[in-house]
Amino acid sequence: MPHGDEQRTEPRELRGGAPSATLARMKLNAFLPLVAFSVFVSGSPLWAAAPPFTPPASPRATYNFNPGWKFIRQDVPGAQEVAFDDSQ
User: Fold this and answer.
1) CA-to-CA separations, 39 to 16, 36, 67, in angstroms, rounded
2) pLDDT interval class at 21 (50, 70, 90)
3) Which residues contact 29 (CB under 8 A, 6 or more apart)?
4) Residue 56 has pLDDT above 90, yes or no
């Protein structure tokens, strides 16, 4: 039995409160910190994504090994021989 100014501290469910209201408040109390953290992280430059990678300039050179090549679309008699002259 409470004495003087003491108040009873019973859970709301035992005092006759609606359990669904308590559950909704608990869900909201759990959800708000997540929303606040998300807003903080998205606006913070410490958490911002780095700029996209740009590769350095390549020291490679491109050469065309095909100048002056000729293509004959037919069987050339004697082309299988080692002594065949294909310079023409």
Assistant:
1) 37, 5, 61
2) confident
3) none
4) no
Percentage, residues of the chain above pLDDT 70? 69
CB 37 within 8 A of CB 44: no
How high is the mean pLDDT of the chain? 76
Hey, what are 51's tokens? 């700029």
Round to whole Å and give the CA distance between 26 and 13: 13
Q: What is the DSSP string of 24-66?
A: HHHHHHHHHHHHHHHHHHHH-TTSSPPPPP-PPPP--------
Tokens of residue 64, six digits: 């065309």
Token pair listed for 6? 């003491």
Domain boundaries, the chain: 12-43
How far is Cα 21 from Cα 33, in angstroms, rounded to an integer? Answer: 19
